[in-house]
Amino acid sequence: MMHSAVTTTEVAPAGLKGWLAGQVLSALPFMAAMFRRFRPIPRLGPVYAVTRHDDVLEVFRNHAEFGVPYKQTLDVLTNGEPFFLGMNDTPEYRQGLHAMRAVVRASDPAMLARNTEEQATALVAAAGGRIDVVQLARRVGCDTMAAYLGIPAPAIGRLDVWCARLFGPTPTDTAGRAALDAVAAAFRQHLDDAIAARKAAGAGPDDVLRRCLAAQAEGKPGYSDVEIRTNLLCLMVGGPPQVPMVMANALEQLLRRPDALAAAAAAARADDDALLWPMVREAMRFDPLGPAVPRIALAPSVLARGTARERSIPAGATVVVCFASAMMDERRVPHPARFDHTRSEEQYIHFGHGLHHCFGRRLSEASLHLVLKPLLRRPGLRRAPGAAGRLRKSGIVATRLVVEFG
Ligand code: HEM
Fold first, then answer.
1. Which CATH number goes with the domain that contains 25?
2. How many independent structural domains does the chain possess?
3. Nearest CA to ligand 1 atom 8
4. Ligand 1 center to 45 CA (angstroms)
5. Model confidence at 154: pLDDT above 90
């Protein structure tokens, strides 16, 4: 019998634990400011945190001594098949990354942007003056990326729900883990079926799957059926679930700043996407994807060497790389509390840095703001009355922000 987690159209409810985590996380910006000032590389047992801009970039750049800890989580998703995000700097990492980079075309970001704006516009038009931005962004982020990669909708269940459920930490309780395993298995089977169907049908639309199968037919390495399945699966689970997180956060930040909201609305109405993106990117800085990403010290290391905050890090320690804090560090981000969309690009670390910097960065930079654009164009964009109109989160994941317009 099929597990209900596969067939449901509901993303898992927030729950008390998620709410509590959200409350704790909301105190982080204040704590991070204290640490940046008085103890920039604090230690809690085997865990160290880097909170300043310079130190965050140093850890990201030093991938030889600070590796990624994602393999175990990814293995649950892929059934043990390797994906490059889970690897340190090895020939396998380079080959895996190269195989996917080779099937991305320079024109893809613009194409994804067009599809994003088109779908978001249609959903906003159909919404009748009231919409949950989280739902809007989840749907658009998932559908446009699925079409780009070449993944059809499943006959049972929904891709955006599968992706949202598979994104994030692996549950430790038996029922939660069984549900996750069932969704991951269903997703792998769905991809196997999609690959087989595309091979049987011949060419099909110009999407990533078609380009991978063409490379496979030419005998290039990195494109076996299982490698294609693993890459499509991880890109789908790793990318689209972040769209509702960062776009709901960004709109919440704009709603808190009427001047910035008005300026973003004017850019949207003027169809000035080149101006709208820096505004949305700046709004994201006040509440980015999450507070940090983790690294594991692969060898003994010294951080911020030669400075007053120099710290020895033993092998095996976890280093929490606080990129949200770094984007508030006045040493590198002038007047960080000020909303200023004219900041230079180096001040932002939304997409990571160094070896593992975001594979989807160019695609995201071209399309994220276009999820909000049709809303910003509407006159009278405002929060819905009551609790629905305030951003709600489960941990770092946005779960609801209802707005009204017109
Ligand atoms: C909302 C937009 C997104 C944000 C804010 C974001 C953020 C990030 C960050 C911070 C990292 C670095 C992780 C680390 O160093 O531990 C990363 C890596 C990555 N992202 Fe994104 N991402 C976004 C969208 C996407 C999309 C749409 C895709 C897929 C097309 C994607 C695929 C990846 C992959 C595969 C990596 C790992 C790259 C590697 O290991 O070399 N991301 N992303």
1. 1.10.630.10
2. 1
3. 351
4. 29
5. yes
